[in-house]
## 1
Amino acid sequence: MGPAGKRTTIRQIAEETGLSVTAVSYALRGERMSAATIVRVQQVARDMGYTADPVARALRGGRSGTVGVIVGSLADFWHQTLAHALQRELRLHGLHAIIADADGDPALELELARRLADQRVDGLLVAPIGPASGGWVELVARLPTVTIAGRLIGAEVAGEVAFDQTSGVAEVLRHLHALGHRQIAVLSWAVEVSPGRPAELAVVEQAARLGLSCEIVPCAYSLDGSRPLALDLLSQAQRPTAVFCMSDSIAYGALHSCRELGLRVPEDLTLVGFDDHPLSRLVEPALTTVNWSIDRAARTAVTFLKDHLADGAAQRRIVIAPSLVVRRSTAAPSYLAGP
């Protein structure tokens, strides 16, 4: 056993087994030595409490076995679910996740990526919340990176798992239009931090096509952050008949505001989310929203990164189509509902 409070070293294992440091190193990796020697060395290592130092291993030219996972905001329930799904998929492949929270700040997201690179992670899985910059282009050039639900345009990523946000927005607005809604507020976390995102551009395009009045309102990326804004919006004399939230977490905040104001959903206000978090089936009323197959997205992203690390596979891209899930939070506006 190594000294209390200190990491057992390969040299100590070599002294214990009577082998060279090189031989022990090979045996711990299960390479080049006889099966009996590998078993003996690995048993001694366990008995001595040896654990590999991933950073030291990476510095020696090997892999650290760790992958950086950066999500836009852990205050958002969808990003919590994404982080969990990515961590689970990485574990299935023997990889360890280091999860970082950008807290809705694109500059912090890039800084976190740089810090993870300094920790010698093998690669990055990123859900970008801001546009690409020179910093991202430089970083991605030296560290394999796979993006999920967002693009780093101009950066040579190893893989990209994209969501067809344009189709998702179109399905929501067509659904609201068919119900008879014409005045719609769109609560978006991205309109200020990520201008030009396809989802918000699709709102403008589809609203014009369908003859809808859609006001895009900047909103915090969380339940607590969206609630005050929704209270103000829904207290207006000419409030919208429907609110389309670019995150289910935002929709939960809007639902809370409706209850505080005595507004019934969907009788007084129709409410729609955008990522089908499991809680959306449980809130009252159950939330109409858009499903993006998060498990498939996580599985595909990890496969892209794993394959690239294994053989330098060329850039791969997949686009996941949305599925509108209609539940009880949407209905015709009250002036069309009849007596």
## 2
Amino acid sequence: MNQKEHFRKFVYQTAFDSRTSRLNQLKAVHRWKDYLVADAYEDVALEYFAMRNSTGVFDLCPMTKHKISGPDALDYLNRLLTRDVSKLKPARVSYCVWCDDDGQVIDDGTVFHMREGEYMLCSQERQLDWLSISALGFDVTIEEVTHDIAALAVQGPTSCAILRDMGLANIEKLKPFGITWFDFEGSELMVSRTGFTGDLGYEVWIEPAKAEALWDALFAAGRIRGIRAIGTHALEMTRIEAGFIQAGVDFLPADSAVRHGRTRSPFELGLSWLVDFKKPNFTGRQALLAEKERGSRFNLVKLDIEGNKPAKDAYIYNGKNKVVGTVTSAMWSPTAKANIALASLHAPWGKPGDDLYAEIYYQRELKWNRVKARATVVEGVFFDPERRKVTPARDY
């Protein structure tokens, strides 16, 4: 069956399924769009520490990928996205968001400027309908290529050394958010220095027919450096430590919202740096200009919470015992040695020094307990190692 006819089939295995299914001792999986992906393979803690101390490999095949090309590709993307895409040179990647007419975020993702006039937009959610509607009046071709590209996230301090040992010469010279290409068994292997862990890491992209060979070569090269397949639970831990947001968790995509007031603007997600009012018109510009003038409704902040009980879905109170927000993501961080969280707070709350508390409920032996723990607003991120940015990447 032609995989592009995904509406004819309910569930797909990824291009790496023959390898990942053998490793999945827990048989813990969930559906990411049309694919089955592992929550964890053997032990979440071991997978997490692999990414922080050696290398973790995550199957990225289900990530939604759109190829955007044509004479108006740049003008189209500049109209769609809030940041100035004209500044993105070939062989570079940028983080981006796009909004509806009300300035509310539909999704975030990465835009790859592959070659002159050729782009790839990657996101968690399917966006073909919105992208097609937004293309009205532009000479541009938009194609969803999710099924046509197999991808892996290779993340952790030994990731560069493993790729080099696999035969990718001079990979250590690739700068953060850079792209380079290699020959792999007669196919083009694209490597980008990108990832969702806040650590040194890469993403590798290849045609599905070469996926198994790529997996085997990667794991053979990484055997002595502690390479390990990792699932979504461990990846979730690293992205919270890095302070990265996730659609459907830290914000509700505007095109799927039912209730008014549940969505967020880039300003309300701490992404004002992605909004460029100096470039020509883009979708949501007028609404965002108005919001900048009057102020935002919410602030997304990072919190350091006392104690060691994760504040999952907790209410945040001020010193007068009034609810001022909610936690969107939370965990005990083994690396930061702290109880950390991302939270959406009603403005003006969310400034360093604010008197805040998290109401945490947790269960022990069928008994529910309640604690109210002090929450401190954190500036910067919880985890930001030097190795993430250094070029050439160091050997570990």
